[in-house]
Structures are given as structure tokens and as C-alpha cells.
Batch of 4 targets.
Target 1
Amino acid sequence: MINRANTAALFTPIYDEFMLSEYKENDQVCPILYQSIDDKTKDYKADDMSGFGIWEEATEGEGGGYEDPTLGYPKTFTQGKQWKKFQVTFEAVDQDEYALLKKEGTARSLGRGSRARIETDAATVLTGGFATAGPDGEYLYDTDHPRNREQTDSDLESDNLLTGAFSHDNLELAETQIANNYVDPAGIPIPQPAKAYIVHPPAIRGKIKRVLSDRAGEQPDTALRNINRFAGAYDSIEWVYIDSARGGSDTQWHIIFPEMDYLKIVWSARPHFTSWIDEDAELYKFKGRMLYALGASNWRFGFGSTGL
């Protein structure tokens, strides 16, 4: 029986369940695109280096063939704390035996808030990639990424900034650009990963579906019934957190390669819920808390266009 004699401790596991039920990590985009790492250090450092360059011919009876790994650019993830709290007065409980139980909706909103915080931060990495510098000093999406720290030849720069609105033709151009620019720090071509997501805001949902649908056998907007080779070729993710209402845009589109593990979220404390009693102020206090950092350790996580 729930009555006014119950303390806040009784509701801690209940509220924890309420909060986490609204957090729903399995419904988030962040866990799909980002590598999740549990690490208790304040600063997590991701070192970027290739293996080695192309093999060279050896001479019988002679040594040699040694090579140092080619260095990329390190990225440090400094974790920050996010939280939200609410409280219930002793008087509220004294005068209403169900006062604590009625806070179920408040606990659920904490879960929604934590989910929104993570999704917002994760989306900002993509939407800000056109104007935010990455580990190599260039924008995350840019035309002149140096391949490694020792590079001096500008002719070896890589370009992961796509151009134009999303369309069948621009997706073909994007694939060519990826093939020409997707190389490791030693300059060895990286095959386009098998798992590629096209991430987009809701505003261009129709364009995406017309090109990528597994039933779209013909190119959209063509009179000659040309074949659509992209039918079913990509998975798409519609992400409301990258739209213009949330600081992004309604025209951008991204080709993201999650299996490369260059988008990272580093956790010291995943979302959790605690409660305590403040006897001096006569308050039941409840708190949701998490500690994490996220970002891109390398521009090779993907390619992007502003859609303009």
C-alpha cells in the first residue's frame, strides 16, 4: 500500500524504471552511428594511425623493408556532466498520500530529456561539420584534408565535402568522389564500407525514398525510364535532430560509415537515477545524471553536403 508513511527510497527503483523506459537507447540514432566506449578517465585520447604503406619488392638475401606507421591526428574526448533534478516537499506528501506516485510523469520526462541531450549533441557533430574544425585543423567536411601529420604535398589532400541537393545524379557523383578521396593516412585507398547510412532531415524524406526505395526500379524524374541502381542499396536514417528547427538545415544530407568507428561517444557514467532526503529543507530530491563526451576522431567517418 502506498501511503504518506512511505519514504522517497521506495520510489527510487520505480522512477529509475520510468526514466529509462523513456530514454530508450535502442530507438536513438546515436548508438547506430557512434561507437560506444566506457572509460573512466577524464580525458580519453583516440590516436589515429594507419597500418603501413604499400608493400615493396624485396631482394633475395638482403634485409630491409621496415617502415614506421603513418601518423594521423589525435583527438581528445573530455567528458562533461549532464543532469536534471526535481523535488517534492514533505508537506505535499503529508497532505496527499499519492504525491510521490504522481511524479511518474516527471520521472519519465527526465528520460526524454537525457535522450534529447544525447541526440542533440550527436547531431550537432554532423550539422556543425561544415563549420567546425576536426582533429586535422580542417572542417570535418572540407575539400583539403591532409592525409597525415607529415604531409607536405597539397596534391595529396582529400575532399569529403559533397555538393548539391540530394538526388540520384548527385548520389552518383558522391560515390565517385568517395572512390577518389577515401584513402588512409598512408594514401592507400579504403573501399567504401559495406554498411553506409544516408542521414537526412525529415524535409527531404520524399527525395530519399524515391531514390532509395527497394521498389524504385526507375530513376525519379526521368522520361526515358532509366534504371535506378540505388534501389535498396543504402539504408537511410531520418533524423529530426539535424533539421533547421534544431540548429541544422532542411537540405543537408550525409553518407556515414559507422563501422569505421570514427564517431565516438565515451561514457564515464551512463544515464542513471538517484534520490535522497533533505531533512533540513524537508524535501524529497530526485536526480538523473550522466557523464560523457562525443565527437569525431577523424574526417573519414563520412561525407556530407549542405544540400545547396
Target 2
Amino acid sequence: MIIDTHVHYYDPTREGGTPWPDPDDEVLFQPTYPERCYALAKPCGVSGTIMVECSEWVEDNQWVLDVAKKETFVWGMVGNLDPHEDRFEEHLDRFSRDPIFRGIRARGWEPDDIDALRLLADRDLSLDLGLSERVPRIAEAIPELRIIINHSASLPMDGGEPPADLVNLMREAAAYPNVWCKLSGMMDLRCKIRPAPTEVAHYAPVLDLLWDAFGEDRMVFGSDWPVSDHSERSYAEVFKLAEDYVRSKGEAAMAKVFCDNSREAYKWVPRS
């Protein structure tokens, strides 16, 4: 079983539009429903997806949950709620009643409100965010909160050495057992070469740093589709890069990174 933990579903053509993506983005600005992803991901063996919400509009969380009711390819959703808003707890309680809602992502706000973030742990939800000095601080303050660092911990993969301070911060975050890292964004966000290289050797020096820090038990696969299309590579090529790298670590690692670890991080329930 394979789970893709980082995809985006949205429809900028629906009534009222959406705040993301930008209308000038010719790659992303089009209706993007689970069936589009299914057609690309199913041939790679993907059984389900975790949708990550980019819209800061509260009701767009409900839009995704409504889509998921009819689309069993959606196994989980990482919502977009701001803990600094007065109605945060109310919104969290409302959406988390749906078992598809698995947590929130820090996007457009600073994740520094420990009391508010503790509400996630109290409800057995997770927190997605980018690598920053806040990750180890939150991980230490709320050890029961499952934290997932997005997009290969922001380590650049353009062929050079990643900045030492960023590598050290990544290792500091990885020292906490409640922190996972997504093997995602390698071609589209971490690499600026276009078309992105497809050879594992190009990415391996940086991926090795992540693997040494998080190991096979705390890495999870995510395609970052359709943002990954900006790499000028197909879903299959994005998937193959991750697959080739992880398979070199053994079949047990494959099962963990592409399924088991995400089940532990997000506590998704299989759908059929």
C-alpha cells in the first residue's frame, strides 16, 4: 500500500473562486480534483492521498471535506486554520469531527502559540510546517504533538552543499522523536533546475543527510502534486525519484516511508 501525503485539491473556477493558486500561474490555475490525481498516481501504485489545504478561507476546509465524502482517494486532510484567530478552537472542533480531518498546516501564520497548538495534541491531530527554529521548540514543549516537516526540510537540491546552519537546524529538529519529515518538493521546490534532474545521484547527497537524521522510521513520501508540475516532470517521474532512493535502503524502508510512517504520523484510516 502506498499513500501520497502531500497533494492539493481545489477549483478556482467555482463560485467565489479561491485565494490560491495565483490566476497568473498557468500550470496550477485549473480545476484540480482527486480524479485528476488518481489518473496519474494509481499507475504508480498509490492507494490514497493526504490533501494539504493552501487556502486560508475557513470554509474551504469544509469544501475539501465535502469533496472527500464522494472521493475515496482522499484518505486524509491537513487543514488550514490560524491558531491566533478567536474562533480557532471552535473551528478545530467543528472540522475534526470528520475523521478525514487529520491536522493543520502552518501557512501564513507563525506557529508560536504553544497553548493553541496543544489543542491539536489534545484532539490527537498533527501539525505540518516548514523547517524553522520553532520546530524543536514546539516539539519539546508538546512532546505528544505529531509534527511533520514539509518538503525535505527546505534543504536546497541544486547540486551544491546545503547551508550548514540549515542542516544543523534540521538535525536539531530530528532529535525529537515526535518529528517526521516529508520526502517531498525535491524537484519543484528544493531544486530550481528546469527541467528538474531525474537522476537519484543529483539528490542523494542531500537526501542522505535527511535519512541519517530521521531514518526509515520518520520519513514519509509526498509528491507535492500539482505543484510538482512546475518541475517540468511528470507525477510518475517525481514518484520514481523517491521510490528509487528509498528502495536502495531496502524493502522494509519502502513499506515504512510509503505507508506505515504516514499512518503513524497522521493516523489515517483506509478508505475503499
Target 3
Amino acid sequence: MSAIASSRVERWLFPGWVAFATANIALMFVMPGKETIPFHFVWISLSIVYGLQPWSLRRTYVVLAAVCLVTGAALLRHVQNDVIGWEETTEVPLMSMVFLAMVWHVRQRAAAIAEARALAESERRVRDAQRRFVRFASHDLRTPVTIARGYTELIGSQTALAQVREDVAIVMDELDKLERIASRLLTLAQINEQSSLRPASVDLDALLHRTIKRWHVSANRHWWIDTDAGFVVADAERLEAVLDSLLDNAVRYTEDGGSVGLYSRHDGGWVIVQVRDDGLGIPADDIGFVFEGFRSGSVRGGTGMGLAIVKAVVDGHGGTVSAENVPGGGALFTIRLPIGARAATPPGQSRDVLVARNGDA
């Protein structure tokens, strides 16, 4: 309804202005000595109409010339009748220059808006193409990886040669990496396609403890956890993917025996979750781009998908995530999540501090 009304207004805007301007020009002719008000009404209304409905340059110049001629003719008539002085006629070129300045600004703004819309459309097409690529690549990778893993395991089981077994282990390790990449591609595609989250009451402390226990056996690091966050309304599977991505990043940037830990606390209506390590930290050139997809750090290889997944999931929960280097070395990733409809903590549940090395937890 509003679109139809707007279309009608635009259709009658210029004819309405022509009628209004004609009436005021007539008043200029029949009201000697009092032509100032209708004169300015003509020019002001011209500027307003052009601002609402910009015309082509040709039409603009034609209308401007017509207004100059008729308003100038009225003023000249009054000059000839000694009603006004010649200096009054300078209003016509002055108002023309003011109008042309406004035309220039309107056209510049229109060009800027058109360019912004074109860029937005181009970015939308790029994002759509990227989503399609990510989705198809994630599915297409899985089949050859599965087949290659089967044949590699078969070769490993049928050989007694130590060198071949070492080669098989290397191939299996690379296939594991490919499988993780395919899994992250699929996760990223699902998040980018805004698949619905499945929020529920999640015991965040228990989730953090389970995550540490899974990771401490896979990497020789000093693992620690200090958590007292309680329950939060969130998608547990997505939060687990976030923690895995952050811990994978921490392991990659720390050496054997380095320290990696989880920390969580309440902060008003929010929950703070932090992942900290004492590794190489974030290169200065990359710290502003760590959450951009398909951009890896300059120190050690990576696809950049893990941290992109982190940001997408946290954003989907209405939270925020940030990264910084800490004094003495290492990186600190901080997640803020709204608690939501927070459930009560079961009575007597312990919020202990766990300090563990490989095999200690």
C-alpha cells in the first residue's frame, strides 16, 4: 500500500510543482513591488522537488532555463515600470548558481548511494558463491578421504616393513587433517547459511571440563581450568565447536610443555569464557583479522576457518569475541555470552579447579 502511495506521489510531484510555480509566477506579474515572496517560492519549491525526485541533466537544464526566463521576465517588467531597481534582477543568476550547487550535491550523493548499492550487491554475490563453494567442497572432500583412508589402512595392515608403516602413519595423519578441514567447512557452511541454533540450558562448567579432558590426552601441554560459570542458554554442540577451535589454535601456537587453559566467570547478565596460552602470540599484522575466514596467521599454517567458526557461532548467540596478546607471551581469547533464561545450578555441584598434565586428569 505504501509503495503504491509513494508511486502516486512521485507521478504527481512534478505536475503539482508546475502548477504551484505557475501560480506564483502569475502573482509576480500581477503584484508589482511584492514579487519577492512568490519569486522565492518558485525557487525554493524547485529545489525541494529536485531533491525529492532528481531529473536527468537535460531535463534539469531545460527546467532551470525556463524558470530563469519567466522569473527574469517578471523582474524586468517591474524594472521597466520603475517599480524595482536593476540590482533586483541579480537574484535570478544568484538563485541559479545556488540551485546548480544543490544539483551537484544531489547527483554526487546519488552516485555514492548507487556505488554503495553496487558494492553491497557484489559482496552479496561473493558471499553466496563462497557459501556454495564451502558447502560443495565439504561434501566432495569426504568421499575421496574416506576411500583413501580405507586403502591406506589396508596397506598398513598387509605390510611388515617399518618404512611402509611410517609412510602409512604420515598419510593417515594428513588424511585426518583433510577430514578435519572438511568437517570445519561443513560447519562453517551451516553457520553461514544461518541454520537454526538449538538453544537449551547448558552446564557450561561441565562442558569446559569435558573439553579439557578430551584435549589433554592429545597434546603434551600443561592444561588447566578455572571455571564457575554455571548454566547458560545456548547450543551445546556449537559451543563445543567453538572451544575445540580455540584450543586447536592454542595447541598450534604453543610448544610441547606449554600452558593452555580455560577460565570462566559471571559478569552481570553475561558469562565470560577465556582461552589462554603462553605460546607465540598473535602477529601484530594479523591481530585485527584473526576472525576472518580463510585467512591464516603468518607464523604457522592454518586455514583460518576455525576462528571464523568461533565468531559466527558467538555472533549467532548474541555474544562477542575478542583476541589479544598477553604480557610475557601468549594469546588470550575472550568470549562474552548472554546468560539468557538461566537455570539454577544443581545443589552441591562442585566448581573445582583442575590442573593437569598429559595423563593426569
Target 4
Amino acid sequence: MNKVRTFTSTGMKLIHHPDVVRRIKTDRRASPISLQIAPTSKCNLRCDFCSNPKRQSHESLDFGEIITLMHKLKKRGLRTVEWTGGGDPTMYTQINAVIDAAALLGLEQGFITNGILLKDNLSEASLKALKWIRVSVNALEYVDKLDLPKFEGTLGFSYVNNDRTTQEVMFRIHEHVRRYRPKYVRIVTNCLATDEEQAVNNRILGDQVAQMGDPYFYQPKVFGRSKSCWWCYIKPFVLHDGFVYPCSSVVLNSDADGKFNEKYRWTTIDELPGKYEEIMIPFDSDSCDHCVFKEQNDLVDTILFPRMENFV
């Protein structure tokens, strides 16, 4: 099993949704497959590598707006919701209520968190409603251990290699892997590094992680610049400020200034459902120099504008 293609969002999973591909090709209209929601800017950690450190720390989405959005997008084909940061979603005061609402709509759900408040703040019903949870074990750079709840879905760990990485931290991670037996442990480099640093990190750290064996895997980060950005239609990202961004990686762009910069706003929560009734128009990606969805955008571009497609 290829863990990168299975457990990350940068694979070619769009091909498993032929109805969406067909609508794009014939009608030039999209359907949302997955919705990412960062419900709150509140967080109980201040990670050195945080890509959103200059955010307002008091923002939270309105409960009613989230429910209305999920209802409207479900009617337009939405399959899944990912609760993410951030912020850490465990600090959203109505997190159990929104998870319950998504479950009632029949939406599959994933959850990304640092894990510190997971056991205290998520109900048993919420845990049962989640298909997967990914815990950022960088929390072990700040706390000695994580007390994670029993979980029947797919549990995964993620770790960002950074200046706080030490043998002691790695030992703690290994101990938690033995205790909780996650399906995978994804290790990545600090995405705030320069392109040159990233290339070196991909080579060196990739070799190191390969020697660690299962369940560890390394996800290389290769940034590009898409000719046209279409991914906002397939997997829109709703931030705690009430705006929708084309993806969660716009915060990594060179001119983002440590936050989800206003120039990368695509639309609002209220206006998002209407985007699926209109002809697709690409988001202006000229400034997106740290795009991690270039291959996906190129795929959608070829669906919309096929060129000698019969010569496979």
C-alpha cells in the first residue's frame, strides 16, 4: 500500500469520482467532494513552525452557518468533511454538535488535531462518527505524553521535523506509536523552509524515515505554481474568519505574511454553494508559489480542456 496516496490529500483520488469528472467535462460545473473546515482560531499550543501565527486568536465560525453550509453542499454532492486548524478544532465550543450534524447528513468525517484535548472535548458519539483522526505528535515537544481516547477508526500520527526535533522527542513518539498503534506516522519537513532547504530535507529526511520502517512514511513536499487553480471547487477550505480559500496551503505562499492573507480569499460561506451552479472560473494563482496541488489542478485543467485525449 502506498501510504502517501492513501493517507494524504495530494494523490489522484479525483479519478474515483467519475460523476464529478463527467460534470466538469460536459457542463464545466463542479461538485464539492470534500469540505475542509477550520472552525476556530483558538489553539492551546504555539508551535514554532505554525504557518498561521499572525491570525486573530479569538475567531470562531457561527454554528448556524456551518450547519447551513453542510446542508447546501450535501445537496450539491458533498461526500466528506475534514475538521482542521487552526486553531485546533477541539477548542471549538460546539464541535460535538457540528460533528453530530454532519453524521446525520451522512457525511464521512475526518479530524486533525494536536490531540491534547481530544479525550476531554470530544464525546463518545463524536469519536464513533469520525472515520479517521490524525494527531499532530509535535505536541510531544510541549507535553510529556498524550492521553488519547479509544478510537475504532483509522488513527494516524503526523510529525513536522523542525528545530525542536531531538532524540528525546523522537523517543516519545516511538513510545506513543507502541502504545496506540497508529495505522501510519507521516513525517514531513517544515513547509516554511526555502525551496533549496526543502530539496535537501526531502532527500536526507526521506532516507532517514525509510530506514525507520512501518508504520512510518515520509511525505515529500514539492511546491509548484499551477497554471490555473481549480481545486477550490473540489475541496474548498473554510477558515474561522468566515471566508473560503482555494486550499489550506495558500498560507505558505511567500507573500502570505504568516496568516491566511486577504488576497487569497475566494468567496464567503454564504456565497460558496452558488459557485456550483455557475461555470467554473479558475482562481487567480499567479501569486501561489507554494502550491501543493499542482498535479490535481493540472488534471482538472486537462478534463476541462482536453487535447488529443484519445491518444493515451
